[in-house]
Amino acid sequence: MSEVEGTVQGHRDGHGFLVREGAGVPDVYLSPQEMRSVLHRDRVRARIVRYDRKGRPEGHVLEIIERRKAPLIGRLLHEGGVWLVAPEDRRYGQDILIAKNATANAEAGQVVSVELTEPPSMFSQPVGRVVEVLGEIDDPGMEIEIAVRKFEVPHRFAPETIAQAAALPEKLRPADLKHRIDLTDVPLVTIDGEDARDFDDAVYCEPMPAMGKGKAKKSAGWRLLVAIADVSHYVRTGEPLDEDAYERATSVYFPRRVIPMLPEKLSNGLCSLNPDVDRLCMVCDMVVATNGEIEGYQFYPAVMHSQARFTYTEVASILANTRGPEAARRSELVPHLIHLHEVFRALLKQRAQRGAVEFETTETQIVCDDNGRIEKIIPRTRNDAHRVIEEAMLAANVCAADFIAGHKHPALYRVHEGPTPEKRTTLANYLKALGLNLSISEEPTPAEYQAIADATKDRADAQQIHTMLLRSMQQAIYTAVNAGHFGLSYEAYTHFTSPIRRYPDLLVHRVIKALLHGKRYHIDSGKLEDAPVVRKGGKAPTPRVQETEAWEGAGAHCSANERRADEASRDVQAWLKCRFMRDKLGEEFDGTVTAATGFGLFVQLDELYVEGLLHISELGGEYWRFDEVRQELRGERTGIRHGAGSKLRVQVSRVDLDARKIDFRLVVEGGGDKLLARGRRIAALPSSASAVEELAAVRLRDREVRAAARGKDKPARASAKTSSRSKTAGAKKTRR
Fold this sequence. Notes:
Blueprint: E1 3-10, E2 16-19, E3 28-30, E4 43-51, E5 57-66, E6 72-79, E7 82-87, E8 96-98, E9 111-118, E10 127-135, H1 142-150, H2 159-167, E11 181-183, E12 189-192, E13 201-207, E14 222-229, H3 240-248, E15 252-254, E16 257-259, H4 264-270, E17 278-288, E18 294-305, E19 308-311, H5 312-320, H6 325-329, H7 334-354, E20 363-368, E21 374-380, H8 384-406, E22 413-415, H9 421-433, H10 446-456, H11 462-472, E23 477-479, H12 503-516, E24 519-521, E25 528-530, H13 545-581, E26 588-597, E27 600-605, E28 611-615, E29 624-627, E30 632-635, E31 641-643, E32 647-656, E33 661-670, E34 673-676, H14 689-711, H15 713-719, H16 724-735
Parallel strand pairs: 8-10, 11-18, 12-19, 28-33
Antiparallel strand pairs: 1-2, 1-4, 2-3, 4-5, 6-7, 6-9, 7-8, 9-10, 13-14, 14-17, 15-16, 17-18, 20-21, 22-23, 24-25, 26-27, 26-32, 27-28, 29-30, 30-31, 32-33, 33-34
Helix pairs in contact: 1-13, 7-8, 9-11
């Protein structure tokens, strides 16, 4: 059998997988016994010992190549005179033993950071020592403190970075203004959300002079300016600020808190395009025709002076009523906002003609109270103001990609590829099973996807269909190899518009600046050298192998850290939602099925916008078969089907804060009374005496659950785990 290397990925159920590098390479299954000597994220070498019935490999660990060194986060527990830490991330699978003198005076139940002193083996648990006490689990903001450590998000700047940021000037100096276009008299404005603190982009639009004479006179389009914060002026390759920014690669956004890529002096101050102050910027100056095509563009460094800080809500109100009170307060800027809306409509036409994919989805916003707990979850309204800025940013990003590709300079592109052959086949079978008179070609185009989305948007299962369309496409990544953007239907696309919060944008700025000076930028050294002349149609100079690898490495690093930031944000949101729902145990809600699986249904509560699992065992005594093609559960005897869009009444039965899971129980109708499915199908009133007694017992249990729900604390205790470890943590929490 062959030997392979890879990174261990644990599973909360005790087994794991060895994840190998390379596309299309299957993961190797590791049994719970094999996982005894390794931990999640260890790098190991293993031998493939067998294949299961489906041809999936199973491995035996031969050697631990590298142990993970980052501290683990968990709850400190005291059981039977033994101190141990239960990892917050259950993929680690094993508790860590702590010596009596290595607890750092932490108390049982507190959240701590642990450093391993002895790794696990086949016959012993891992041993560690507490290196940091984070506090109590219910402390405000603790879920964020856990997430940044759990996902290893850098959240403290190096002393050298802090010192370099502190040494930067408070305002622009005369030397900063050299070789820049003065745009301080142009009424550029920022348009962002109400809670935004860093402003990377400002916009301005004016109509181009009309062409022709008399009745033949017609509009020539618009001049659209997108000004982006010039972060590269302050953050230079190889300096502490740059090294910390590269390590983070992106800002991480949590409810009520942001872990920024750059120190606050830069992100919210010197680089942020705040109103009424001069700021350095890089400008994409475009000419947009009436049909939405970009007929010309140029890039140049400039200095600007933002005339106003608008919110999306404010701009939407002004555009809806140009004679209203909001418009009256900003009367001098209203004409420019109208021009922005005009160019947006033109760009939107071009988007439709291009065939870009656009799904209508409901995004939600978490509103927290003063303690950082969820107060309510509301749908986020996306208005024309959001779309105006989105289209302007897309136009600037496309111009940046075209500019770099035209000069044949290496850079990071934002690549989004279409479906793989396997995913295309799965999608085609799904559409066919639904009876839709729609098909996917062998080489699908974005226009085909958009046609399906448009044709199904009014169906009850539209969300599931659109989800299947999204799943069939590959994940967007940063890479030095331009393969286009399938979803947006662009041949070349990059990120230029957010250098304050995304490192790839900062790299793109450096490349554009180098090209404007006739130079080439080397990512590995940060040096500039004279660019060789490349004639039209000629071949670009072959980059050095080391430099090519550096660009590919940067793309992989930024893509991985983008995923890490998303995972950390989702983890915090899941924790907050579980904490929010813990006070609603036993309550009933109407919900909509968002997805069906072989083990149950995922249901989103219509009122609260919280999703949980309705396990297949809670659907009654019917035998349910999962239809993978149709993505639905179907009852063998009744023929009842549950798929995306199905409406159900559910009760909150269990909330597992540690696992970030919410479980529901199905509420069904029976003879005018509401009943809870208890592993049996209750379809009609019983006729026999024994059945009547059984139904009475079910109703009695239902009343007990509702009574407990009114007390709130009883269901919480009922849903707690029965292990001694959880009891210890629960006791500590009760004492508080």
